[in-house]
Amino acid sequence: QVQLVESGGGLVQPGGSLRLSCAASGSIFSFNVGWYRQAPGKQRDMVAVITRGEDTNYADSVNGRFTISRDNAKNTVYLQMNSLKPEDTAVYYCNLRLGPIAYWGQGTQVTVSS
Fold this sequence. Notes:
By secondary structure, this protein is mainly beta. It is built from no helices and 11 strands. It has strands at residues 4-7, 10-12, 18-24, 32-38, 45-50, 56-58, 66-71, 76-81, 90-98, 101-104, 108-112. Strands 2, 4, 5, 6, 9, 10 and 11 form a 7-stranded mixed beta sheet that branches.
């Protein structure tokens, strides 16, 4: 069992930046890792994924603004979010996945508002 703890969320003005972190209690080396988000009343959607081989994939809505990265030595995943928009407001969740095995964090709130 791997525990995930997200941090770095908060309130930011439109156009601002935040960096989310996801610290894992065990090794992330073998896992594909990703960030998902869920706005009130909506489903949880993929934001960005980085594979074990460090290939990345982004949702169209964040492509060019967000960057996902991983530090296997620190067992940590990051999401750098720039040019934030009000529609980016959501709870952001970290996910580790290897085949049928998946772990989720508890989420961190990101609110983009003036």
